[in-house]
Amino acid sequence: MNRLSLTNLPTKPAVEPGGLSVGIVHLGIGAFHRAHQAVFTERAAQLTGDSRWGISGVTQRSAAVRDQLAPQDGLYSVLTRGGGAASIEVIGSVREVLAASEDPAAVVQRIADPRVGVVTLTVTEKGYRARSGGGLDLTDPEIQADLTGRPPRTVVGQLAAGLARRSGAPLTVLSCDNLVANGPYLARLVREYAEAAGLAGEQFEAAAFPASMVDRIVPATTDADRDEAARLLGVRDEAVVVAEPFIQWVIEDAFAAEQPAWDAAGAVLTADVAPWEQAKLRMLNATHSMLAYLGALRGYETIAEAVRDEDLATAATELMRVDVVPTLTPPDGLDLTAYGESVLERFANPALKHRTAQVAMDGSVKLPVRLLGTVQDRLAAGAEPYAAALAVAAWMVYVSRTAGLDDPQAARLQSAAASAGGPAALVDALLAVDTVFAPNLRENKTFRSLLVDHVTALTR
Ligand code: CS2
């Protein structure tokens, strides 16, 4: 079957394919970006006719995405799976893909390009190379290697080098990762990197780092998805991404200069993203992780299967209702109970096949963001975070039982878990991991005893 390309278009993208010039650099052009920011970008270009905001996507580690997209002129499709029949749409907002592993200098050059006004990022929690609690991890070997002056390979190094070489309009750097106050978090990393590298200048002063909250469930694409896309399109798309119908983007309205009309495409611009972000991280992402660990322990392959298990659905509901909601100040107009219900409905979408193992990945960097803030706030309020501790305990058991754990700290976690005999020892060994648990949590007797009870029950 022929390959999707400019000369082989089954349906016309909303924008003239190839008609956009590059105005956005996106670091981390994985499935999520292609199903989220790239879709908003395409709709904004369609609605406004503004052709300045095409995307230059950067793939950091492997060149696979570049190799999929280059023969397709950057075109790919989004396969949306909701309740009814799947629908498919070709997206034309990605104009080029750079592979940082092959040509790191090209990435810096693009960020420095005065026609580029915005850099967006989806590089996952671990891509920031931060210390637990924030700030740059200067012991990270890749950060150290970048600081010796090679063409930078870390995201923070790329941003700092790009800013240092830039002239013209100031840059907006927009983190779209699931982190608390992602904008200021990244601003601090770039500032600390620049200090360590001896980089400075106007562009650093003038750059803006707004915060943002992104939401869409985008499981890894499978061969079955690629086959279905081929049937629907009549041409082969090696870069198809799969997503649920739901899509949301809340952006702090604090750009350094001009911005794409993402709001015209449905993004919400606001002065304060924090209430949105907290609700999303503590409700959606926290229950997602809980269902991933509890679900995997019960042998479920997918999140949809896990949330159909009544015990697990109850645990997720309790987590939100009892532990999370009291810690939140909801944004105007958001009913947290209804939000919680809608989250579980989205997880139950049987067409998505989101693997528990995928959501379970990188727990050491996800837990602090999604769950441990809730634990801290509940303990500070004198409450026992029973349900939140269950999620953490499920992670502990998962760590101890999973061969080939997919986590940036896998070696440390698994050697801690391996030396522990019995529930209390497992809890103590993992609580001692100071890159995950803050000192006050490590020493909290209430939290420890909840964890021991839960681990005992889960391993019985
Ligand atoms: C998930 C998220 O893999 C994970 O950790 O919790 O990727 C989740 O699907 C998205 O944040 C939804 O917006």
From TrEMBL:
Which catalytic reaction applies to this protein?
A: D-mannitol 1-phosphate + NAD(+) = beta-D-fructose 6-phosphate + NADH + H(+)
UniProt keyword terms in alphabetical order: Oxidoreductase
Q: Name one GO molecular function term.
A: mannitol-1-phosphate 5-dehydrogenase activity
Positions of the Mannitol dehydrogenase C-terminal domain:
272-457
List the Gene3D superfamilies. N-(1-d-carboxylethyl)-l-norvaline Dehydrogenase, domain 2, NAD(P)-binding Rossmann-like Domain
Protein's organism: Kribbella flavida (strain DSM 17836 / JCM 10339 / NBRC 14399)
Task: Give start and end of each Mannitol dehydrogenase N-terminal domain.
Answer: 23-263
Q: Where are the transmembrane segments?
A: none
Looking up Pfam families in the UniProt record yields:
Mannitol_dh (PF01232), Mannitol_dh_C (PF08125)
Protein's name in the database: Mannitol dehydrogenase domain protein
